[in-house]
Design goal:
17% strand; 39% helix; TIM Barrel; two-stranded antiparallel sheet; alpha/beta
């Protein structure tokens, strides 16, 4: 049976009310809620929320009751969102509802994308080749950042026992779409964007050195490449085959290429550490997408580690969906979960027929579907899910 879930924010569930949300999900054919349990900042226009039409959530907070005793001695600790104290623990409410026959519960958990924590702990934030902090992302090479993510997921999994946990951003955040009101007058080419997103913090350099990789030489190479890009009057590609060739585009710079291959290790090992603390009965899914290799994600290495992928196909052309899902299924094998994630944003998805075609393209290879997002779209658009599911 296909597992169908809808992503949702706690404030939307508070404002809509659990009975109405449950009824809506049942009507469209979803038997699960993917609740944001750790999230970053933003400005959200919410046509699906009757109370908070425009909402600015607290930056970098968690949406469950934190047990302070679990965090004694930790360098980086979570901040419980104010809404949990003022309006209730929605995760606990969902779990209680599940016990009474309600929808299944999935915890949508943002790991390292956290500007609040990056500014509080700059020594554990990502650093560009020039040494500038990227405050919106903690580094997966940092022992303190790793300990924070592992302990947070363990707390969610062991205290609430959701059906599954969806890991978002356990990797190296890229340069673009990390902060708010970003400025770029070059403009940044894809290769520059990629190089600016590479981390050369002391934790990365030490971890790479321990693995026999010369991170300092790679850093020097990236500094030279970026300085050359910044010096040009107008942009000019230095790697015209990027990103089509992936990491092989940098094969002419051996130190850099070695570093790019190495940076998969902190991501893979972090996810493995997380998996080790998740109890049996709680599935651990990695939120993946085409191009995740930019952040050091190696799906082939991670497939044996996790219980499945939640593969986001938000803007993927419909004619590419089947191939991507087939490739992901091959990596996972037949026993693990492969969930296809779709958004309901217009005009990225033109209409209900477009969503239906996208779902149909994914369905032969997947055993689940996720739809984004309950409060961010007009209520009438949720009916597109029902149509797509009814098509079989």
């Amino acid at each position: 049976m296909t597992e169908v879930s809808v992503w949702a924010y706690p404030w939307d569930l508070h404002d809509l009310g659990l009975p109405d949300v449950t009824a809506t999900l049942a009507w469209v054919g979803a038997g699960m809620i993917s609740l944001a349990t750790s999230y970053h900042a933003g400005r959200f226009l919410q046509p699906g929320n009757p109370r908070r039409r425009v909402y600015f959530p607290q930056d970098g907070t968690v949406y469950y009751k934190v047990d302070a005793s679990r965090w004694v001695g930790a360098e980086i600790v979570p901040l419980q969102a104010d809404i949990v104290a003022t309006e209730g623990d929605m995760l606990a409410a969902l779990v209680a509802q599940r016990s009474a026959g309600g929808p299944s519960v999935s915890c949508w958990t943002v790991c390292l994308h956290n500007t609040r924590l990056g500014m509080l702990h700059p020594d554990h934030a990502l650093r560009t080749a020039h040494g500038d902090p990227q405050y919106y992302g903690l580094c997966p090479s940092s022992p303190a950042a790793r300990a924070y993510v592992v302990r947070m997921v363990e707390e969610i999994a062991t205290r609430y026992h959701p059906d599954r946990i969806e890991l978002e951003s356990p990797d190296f955040m890229g340069f673009s779409h990390g902060f708010h009101h970003e400025k770029d007058g070059l403009p940044v080419l894809p290769e520059d964007d990629f190089l600016l997103g590479l981390c050369f913090c002391p934790h990365c350099l030490a971890r790479a050195k321990a693995a026999g990789v010369d991170g300092a030489a790679a850093q020097s190479a990236v500094v030279a490449l970026l300085d050359a890009a910044f010096a040009r009057e107008v942009p000019e590609a230095q790697f015209p085959d990027f990103p089509a060739l992936g990491l092989d585009a940098f094969a002419g710079s051996p130190a850099l290429h070695d570093y790019l291959v190495w940076r998969r290790e902190p991501v893979t090992s972090l996810v493995a550490e997380i998996k080790a603390v998740v109890p049996k009965g709680v599935r651990l899914l990695l939120i993946d997408y085409e191009g995740s290799w930019w952040g050091g994600v190696d799906p082939a290495a991670l497939a044996p580690v996790v219980d499945g992928f939640l593969y986001c196909l938000y803007i993927t052309p419909v004619d590419r969906i089947a191939g991507l899902m087939s490739q992901a299924r091959y990596l996972l094998g037949p026993q693990k979960s492969l969930i296809a994630g779709f958004q309901l944003f217009h005009p990225n998805v033109k209409d209900r027929a477009d969503l239906q075609a996208r779902v149909a393209a994914a369905r032969p290879c997947v055993d689940g579907l996720n739809f984004y997002n309950l409060g961010l779209v007009p209520p009438k658009r949720l009916d597109w899910i029902r149509t797509a599911l009814a098509a079989g």
